[in-house]
Each structure stands twice: as C-alpha cells, then as structure tokens.
Amino acid sequence: MEDARLTAPSVARNRGPILEVLRSILPPRGVVLEIASGSGEHAAFFARNLPHLVFYPSDPDAVARRSIAAWGAALGLANLRAPLALDAKQGDWPIADANAILCINMIHISSWAATEGLIAGAGKILASNAPLYLYGPYRRAGFETAPSNLDFDAWLKAKDPDFGLRDLEAVAACAARNGFSAPEIVEMPANNLSVIFRRA
Prior knowledge:
Layout: H1 9-25, E1 30-35, H2 41-49, E2 53-56, H3 62-75, E3 100-104, H4 112-125, E4 131-136, E5 138-139, H5 147-159, E6 166-167, H6 168-177, E7 184-188, E8 192-198
Parallel strand pairs: 1-2, 1-3, 3-4, 5-6
Antiparallel strand pairs: 4-8, 7-8
C-alpha cells in the first residue's frame, strides 16, 4: 500500500524549539486546534509529547489531510484526531471551541485574507485567556530583517504576489480588532518568531 505520509524538512529543525514554547503556554488539559497542518508532522510530534492534550489537525487540502491521517495511523496516537477540512478564510469552521490554536508557517504562504480569517475564527472559538500561537518569519518595526528572510520574501512574492512576510504590527492590529491581547514574542532559531496572542 502506498504511504501517504508527506515530510517537510523544516519540521525536524523547528519542532523541538516550538515544543518548548508550547509547554509553557498550553493548558494542562483540553483541545488544541492546529490550522494549516500541512504534512501533519507537527501535530503528530506535539500529540506524542503532550499526551494530556487532544490535538485536532486541519488543512483545506485533501492531499495534506491524507498525509495527516497517515501519520496518525502510523503512530497510533489516541490523542491525535482525524484531520478537519478547514479553510481559515471561511467563516464557518467545523469545530465550535478549543482551548488553544496553533498555526505554524502559514501566514507568509497564504493571502492576507487567510490571516484575517484565521484571527477572526480564533476570536470566535477561543475562551478568555486562551492562546493563539503563530510561528514563522515576520517583519518588525525597529528591527532589521535578516537577509535570508528578505530573500525568502522575494521568492514568495515571485510565486504569488499575495504571499510574503507580514508586518508583525499589522498582524497584532488585526488581533486587537478581534479581541486579543498584545503579543508575547519569543525569538526562535533561523530568524523566526513565536508570537502568542491571548483572547481577552
């Protein structure tokens, strides 16, 4: 039988540092929704290392959802649920509430409308003080953007003019409009950031 599992090289590099941040911000129990789970490797890794939490991965792409399901089947993790078909831009999400939301490396490889939809949707289903965790490269006012990130930004825009590194201030402003606090920012390897918003 064909193995439907996909792999993304960046996952092996960033999953450990991300897990350390998640250990400090996720609740002791509850449901964690991951938006744009891609290959499913992050969800599987976090579910294996945080067995007290229930993880709901999601992706709008059917091939990605097959990969997510295949990772879950291969690892037999009781706390990793079947992937949801969820497009962040759409108003109706197939889950009514969550105790935390994760979104890793989506914002720069999707339209700004997807970011707006992600934050608006998170604002609807997260309870007070629940975290919205974002990971990836950003532009920040008052901080020099790393040359590698500038090159990456140019490459993304060449693929799709709607893609590219987002200004963290614009993301924070969108979050504020949807009832979130100012972000907590954690510097990560390879010029990435963990950005944590909490529902007011």
